[in-house]
Amino acid sequence: MIWQIELIILVLVVLFGFGALATKDLLSAAILFGAYSFLLCLLWAIMGAVDVAFTEASVGAGVSTVLIVSAVLRTTRRTDH
Amino acid sequence: MLLPTYRCLIGPTVFDRLVGVNAIGSKTIVMLILIGLIYKRVDMFVDIALAYAMLNFIAVLAASRYFQKQKGLYDKTGKRTPLI
Amino acid sequence: MKITGLISLIFIGGLLFYGALDFPPWGDPTSPASSHLSPYYIEHSIKDTSVPNVVTAVLADYRGYDTMFETIVIFTAGIVCIFLLRSFKEKAPESRMYRHIPTGIILRIEKGGKVPHESEYFEHIDSVWIPYDLVIRTTCRMIIPFIQVFALYVIAHGHHSPGGGFQGGVIMGASFVLFAIGFNLRSAIKQMSEKIVAFICALGVLIYAGTGVLCMFFKANYLDYSALAPLLRTDPVTARSHGILIVEIGVGMAVMAVMVVLYYNLSSAGKHDEGL
Amino acid sequence: MMVTIMILLIFGLIFFAGGAIGIIRFPDFYSRLHPAGKLDTGGLVITMSAFALYTIQPFDLEAIITSIKIILIVVFVFITSPTAIHSIVDAGIRAGLEPWEKQEDK
Amino acid sequence: MNAANKKASIDDIRPDHNKNNSFHHTNKKQFALIPFVVTFFIMACFWLLFSGKFDGFHIFLGIGSCLIVSGISSRLLFPRGVPPLLLKTWLKFAGYLPWLFNQIFLANLHVLYLTFHPRMMELINPKIIKFNSRLKSDVSRTTFANSITLTPGTITIHAGVMGKFAVHCIDDKSGQSLPGQMENKISKVFDE
C-alpha cells in the first residue's frame, strides 16, 4: 500500500484523538470521537484487516456516538478543572 | 480531507464540528471503495461502505436531538458563557 | 496527583516500548507467530471447516472459547448497566404532559393531579416537547427495514465476506436506536419491551453455550462442532460450518440486545420514560 | 470507457475540493452547510458512478452485483444526507444561532 | 427562537396530523397480511441483491431473515391510515429522477462557482424565506424537503405538518424559483 496515505491518515487519527481530549466541551469531544473512529476504520482497511474495519465502522458510526451523546445529555456538558 | 479536519478541530461552535464530521464521513465512503479497487477486492469493501452509508447520519441525528432537548448553546447553570 | 499520574504513565509507556523492542521485526517471515500457527490456520481452515473467510473460522471455531467469553463479557456489561442505572421506584415527576388525541389539546398535570390512563384518547408526551419533525421521522420510517435486512445479511454471510455475529448485531441494534431517536423512546419500548430484550440477550448467550454442551452429549469436546454431524445430517466438515453459523446467530442476538439495553438505560437515566 | 471514467473522477474530485474549500471560506454556519451538503453529495454521486463503471468491466454476475451495490450506496446517501443536513439546521435554529446576513441597508 | 418555529409549533398541535400518523396511537396489535406480504417481497429482492448467492442454503437463510424483518417492521413501511404507495407512483417517481439529477448538477455548479469566486462575500446574500406548500401526504412533503435541500442554494429549515416550509437560501437568484416548478412536478408524481 502507498505509505504516504497511511502516514497522513495516521497523523489525522492522532490529531483527532488529541482534539477529543483537549476540548472542554464534552459534546464536541463526542463528535470528534466519531470522526476519530471514521479515520481509524480507514486505517484498518488500508492495513488489510477487513473484519476489524467492519467492526469499527458499525460500532463507531452506529452506536458509540449515540451512547456518548445520550450520556452527556443525562450528565453535564462541561468538564471542571 | 484536511480542510474539514481544520473545521472540526478549530471550528467555533459545535455545529461546525458536525458539518466537518459529516464531510469526513462522505469522503470516508469514497476512500473505502478506492482502497477496495487498489486491493482488487471491491466485493469485500463494498459492505463496509454500505454500512457507513446507512449509519452515517445516526450520530448527526443524535446530536441534533440533543439540541432539541437541551435548548440553547448555553449550559443549564445559567452562566451565559458560550460553550466553544 | 496529576504529576504522579504523568510520571507513572511515562514510566509504563517506556516499559512497554522497552518490551516492544524485543519483538521480531514487522513482517518477519521467521517470527514464531508466522512460522507455525498462522500457516496452519491458512492451510487447514478450508479443509477443516469449509469456511472461505479464515478470520471467521479462527474466531468461532479454533478460538471458540475466546469468543464465547467475549460474548459473556458483553452480556455482563448489559446486566451491570441494568443494575446500576435502572430505577424501578416510580418517583412521580413534577409535571406530566398529556395530549388529548382527537382534539390535540395538551394537558399539563401538576404533581398530585389525577393522571389519565394511556388509551386511544390520551398520549403521554415528553416534558420538553419536541414538535413533530416530519423529515426525520419519515426518513427513519423508510430506511429502518433496509438496515435490518442488511444486518441479517451480515450475520448470515460471515462465512464469505467480512462480518459476522458481532457486526450484524451492532447494526441491528443501531436500527432500533434509530427507531428510538426518530420516533420516541416510549414507542420503541412499546415495540420491543425491556423484558423481551433481556430475554433475547440471555438467549443469545444460551445458544452459544448450549451448542458447546450439545457437542459434549455426542461424546466430543466442548465446542467441537463436528460432533453435531448426525444431528444436522451432514458430514463433519459441513457440520462445523453450520455450527459456526449457529454460534454467530447467538452472538448477534446477544450483542443486539445489549446495545438496545444500553441505549434505553443511558438515554433515560434508568427511568424509561423519555429518551434522547 | 476509460476516458469516461477519468472524466467523471476528475469532476468528482473537483466537487470534493470545492466542498472542502467552501467549508472554510463561507462566513457562517448556515451558509457553510451549502457546500458541505451539496458538493459532497454531488461529488460522491459522480465518483461512485465512475467506480461502478470501472467495476462492471468483466461483466459477469459477481461484478454486476458489486456495481449494483455501489449504486445502492448512492441511493442511501441520497436519502440520508439531506436528512442529516436538515437536522443540523434544525438544531442550529433551536439552539438560537443567528443566521449571518449582509448589512447593506445602512 | 425563530418566529417560524413558534408558528409552526402552533400548527403542529392541530388535530389533523394525528390522522396521518396513527402509528403510535393504536394499542391493539392487529396483524395485517397485505403489508406483511409486500414487505416480504421487497426485502427478498434486497436480500438477493445483497447476497448474490443462489444456492438452497442461502435462499433458506434469506427467507428466514426476510420473515423476521417483515414481522418486526412491516408497520413502518406501511403505517396504518396512510394510503400505501402504489407501483404507479414509483414509476412516476422514476420519471421525476432525471430532472432532479439535472437540477442537482446545476446546483453543484452554482455552489462551485460561488465557492471559487474571489469576491464571494459580495455575491451571497443569505436569507430565510417562508411559503406554504399544497402537498398533503408525509412522503410527498419529505420528498419535497429533500429535493429542496439538494437543489440550488437552498436548504430546508423547517417542514411543518400543515405544509409550512421555511427555506434558507444563499443568494437572491436561488430563492426566487421556489416553490414553483418542483412542487408541480412532485404533486404530479403523487397525484395531489
Provide structural commentary.
The complex is a heteropentamer of chains A (81), B (84), C (276), D (106) and E (192). Chain B has 3 helices and no strands. Chain B is mostly helical and 84 residues long. In chain B, helix 1 runs antiparallel to helix 2 and helix 2 (14-39) runs antiparallel to helix 3 (42-69). Chain C has a domain at 44-89 and 132-267. In chain C, strands 2-1-3 form a 3-stranded antiparallel β-sheet, with no helix packed on it. Chain C is built from 10 helices and 3 strands; from the N terminus they run H-H-H-H-E-E-E-H-H-H-H-H-H. Chain C is mostly helical and 276 residues long. By secondary structure, chain D is an all-alpha fold. Chain D contains 3 helices and no strands. In chain D, helix 1 runs antiparallel to helix 2. Chain E folds into 2 domains: 22-77, no CATH class; 87-189, no CATH class. Chain E is built from 9 helices and 3 strands, in the order ααααααβαββαα. In chain E, strands 1-3-2 form a 3-stranded antiparallel β-sheet. The model of chain E is unreliable at 1-28 (pLDDT under 50).
Would you spell out the secondary-structure blueprint of this structure?
The complex is a heteropentamer of chains A (about 80), B (about 80), C (about 280), D (about 110) and E (about 190).
Chain A: H1 3-22, H2 26-47, H3 50-74
Helix pairs in contact in A: 1-2, 2-3
Chain C: H1 2-20, H2 32-49, H3 54-62, H4 64-85, E1 95-100, E2 105-110, E3 122-125, H5 134-156, H6 165-182, H7 185-191, H8 194-217, H9 229-232, H10 236-267
Helix pairs in contact in C: 2-3, 3-4, 3-10, 4-8, 4-10, 5-6, 6-7, 6-10, 8-10
Chain D: H1 2-25, H2 29-55, H3 61-95
Order of helices and strands of chain B: HHH
Strand content of chain D: under 5%
Strand content of chain B: under 5%
Largest sheet of chain B: none
**What number of structural domains do the residues of chain B give?**
1
Using DSSP, what is the number of strands of chain B? Answer: 0
The oligomerization state is heteropentamer
The number of distinct β-strands of chain D equals 0
State the end-to-end CA separation of chain D. 56 Å
Discrete helix count of chain D: 3
Order of helices and strands of chain D: HHH
The largest inter-chain interface, given as chain pair and residues per side, is: B-D, 42 and 43 residues
Low-confidence stretches of chain D: none
State the helix count of chain B: 3
Radius of gyration of chain B: 17 Å
Largest sheet of chain D, in brief, is:
none
Summed over residues and divided by their number, the pLDDT of chain D gives a mean of 78
Q: What overall form of chain B do the CA principal axes indicate?
A: flat
- Runs of chain B with pLDDT <50, length 5+? 72-84
